[in-house]
Amino acid sequence: MSKIIISCAVTGSVHTPTMSPHLPITPDQIAQQAIEAAEAGASILHLHARNPETGEPTPDPAVFMGFLPRIKQATDAVVNITTGGGQNMALEDRLAAAEHASPELCSLNMGSMNFGLYPMIDKYNFSQEWEGAYLEASRDRIFRNTFKDIENIIERLGVRHGTRFEFECYDVGHLYTLAHFLDRKLVKPPLFVQSIFGILGGQGADTENLLHAKRIADKLFGDDYQWSVMAAGRHQLPFVTMGALNGGNVRVGLEDSLYAGKGRLATSNGEQVRIIRSVLESLSLEVATPSETRSILDLKGGDNVSF
């Protein structure tokens, strides 16, 4: 087995400030937690931005630039900027930060889908009005990623900036969509395929689904891809461990789960990285360095970004 790439998704656009006092909101907090995660062993940092006053997801490149240069200066980690953004953002908004920063890696969602956040509403007494309304909106909103949208992102970031992609696949059909773009030669190996489990609207966090996703990816991509696994909420640690045991890379972070054990909030992204690194090393699996990750994924290098 090759070395395991640990990705850390630092803040995301799913959880809201009321849910955890440890969710990084300000540029300072995002930078600090990203740096800690890199020091703990994450070689990829997947980044969203938040309005520093309210904690609401924001696409504003100026906010991203409040933490991107600090992370680059303090770590050698690969920066992976979202193109998914938040559920209320138009595609132009979602691409703004990535086009400004020209990163080595960006996320790219491989299909439109329902993305249900509203079941979390009844679990919290929100401190800000926007939080409940934001979650409720997911009941009647489609997370849009059409074929044309995907073509647009590949052209604007892949072709013009030399950025490569973390292909986020929330269902098996998304793997076939990626294969379609591979057949058209709009994307090229090695593909970095992120199988995502446990989001309402996507594939469930069942062992059968994990193994099936791997079988289909093997069938479609052969040796031309790197597989990674992430899972939402309480499924995070057991699922990424199963992924690693089946030859996959792993993703953790407060975007995906707020916890570091049953009923215990994670105090930082770094804590989650340290936990999964300890698990991997106890299984005699080696963790990839940022330099090794760049080689594995054929990235353009940290000197070729714009931050």
Automatic annotation (TrEMBL):
Keywords: Metal-binding, Transferase, Zinc
InterPro entries per the UniProt record, alphabetical: Aldolase_TIM, BKACE
Cofactors demanded by this protein: Zn(2+)
Molecular function, one GO term: 3-keto-5-aminohexanoate cleavage activity
Pfam families given in the database record: BKACE
This protein's record includes keyword Zinc: yes
Gene3D superfamilies: Aldolase class I (3.20.20.70)
Domain of life: Bacteria
Protein name stated in the entry: 3-keto-5-aminohexanoate cleavage protein
Protein's organism: Novosphingobium lindaniclasticum LE124
